[in-house]
Amino acid sequence: MPDLTPASAAEILMAQPRGFCAGVDRAIEIVERALERFGAPIYVRHEIVHNAYVVADLRRKGAVFVGELDEVPAGATVIFSAHGVSREVREDAARRGLHVFDATCPLVTKVHVEVSKLRAQGCEIVMIGHRGHPEVEGTMGQANGGMVLVESVGDVQTLQIADPSRLAYVTQTTLSVDETREIVAALKARFPDIREPKKQDICYATQNRQDAVKFMAPQVEVVIVVGSPNSSNSNRLRELAERLGVPAYMVDAPEQVRPEWIAGKRRIGLTAGASAPEALAQSIVERLRELGARQVRPLEGIEENMAFPLPRGLLPTSAAA
Ligand code: 0O3
Ligand code: SF4
After folding, report:
1. Residue nearest to atom 8 of ligand 2 (CA)
2. What is the DSSP string of 10-64?
3. Which atom of ligand 2 approaches the CA of 24 most closely?
């Protein structure tokens, strides 16, 4: 019989860091500033970041989210999401005469630049990532062929490479650090000359949020991750907690927290993916309090101070000159 007593006196441990990264902060600010400067509607190709709360908030303010550019009227303003776009999408926007602001995270753009350079040097490129994810489509769309996707160690074994002496790999920025290490080890075992990024493509925010879960998980009996179902980095946080032996759930609205998840638990860990706003995390804390949790304790962890500049056309007018 499961223990269904309320989480009375349970303590909530808050992971540090959690929530918004610099790329997400910048992407949302780009949409907000474009709305202020040009007025609604502002079109956004794909969800600006993978969070239902953020998307609903911007929609209320006048953003119109579209799947593809053919849904955008000629001459309108369109913003590319933080996950980046292929060259084809960029060229299509130019052909349609759209006014573009690019909210691609600079750390995703860095991988795009690397792909272009490697292709110019004649390298074939293995991309480690998740099929169908917009970042993977954008990054693989920087090359005209010559790239192959691997999602697992198993995929590495079946790779067909024309010239293993001219081979490199890049990765999605939001992958599991540990799983990627295993895939890279398999790649190096099969292709000892494979070139690797100078600094890993998994970004600082992904690394820090996973490290924070590793620190938090042994101290709690259940982990709640604030994040939407299509958020890759949020899913990786939930999986990581489970791999560390702690039951973990992902939610993007307070009413999704089920009483039985926390019944009888004395310590509840809370974290949030890079696209989940702190206001949403606090609404989950409120829900946990309603269910009987008492104290909230922020854990120690890295203080992030990364910030990326806005595109020129959206700077305050005095700074844009
Ligand atoms: O890439 P992911 O699904 O994790 O995207 P999110 O949830 O929107 O988070 C921001 C990360 C990003 C834009 C790509 O690095
Ligand atoms: Fe950029 Fe990393 Fe945030 Fe993605 S998770 S938007 S790469 S900082």
Report:
1. 23
2. -EEEEPSS-S--HHHHHHHHHHHHHHHHH-S-EEEES-SSS-HHHHHHHHHHTEE
3. 6
For the chain, give the mean pLDDT. Answer: 96
Query: Is residue 314 situated within a structural domain?
Result: no
* Whether the predicted pLDDT of 318 surpasses 70: no
Can 239 be counted among the known catalytic residues? no
Residues 166 and 212 reside in one and the same domain: no
What DSSP designation does 173 have?
T
30: tokens are 């780009």
Question: Are 227 and 252 contacting, i.e. CB atoms less than 8 angstroms apart?
Answer: yes
For a ligand 1 pocket test, name from 25, 31, 173, 174 the mutation site with the most ligand atoms within 8 angstroms of its C-beta: 174
Pocket of ligand 2 from Cβ distances under 6 Å: 21-24, 82, 105, 107-108, 173-174, 203, 205-206, 233, 274
Would you place residue 321 in the very low, low, confident or very high pLDDT band (cuts 50, 70, 90)? very low
Residue 306 lies in a domain: no
Of 135, 182, 242, 304, the active-site residue reads 135
Looking at the fold, whether 70 and 154 belong to one and the same domain comes out as: no
Predicted pLDDT at 200: 97
Domain containing 158 — which CATH number? 3.40.1010.20
Q: What is the per-residue pLDDT across 256-306, written as a single tens digit (0 to 9) for each?
A: 999 999 999 999 999 999 999 999 999 999 999 999 999 999 999 999 999
Range of the domain at 75: 22-105
Please tell me the pTM assigned to this model.
Answer: 0.96
201 alpha carbon, closest ligand: 2
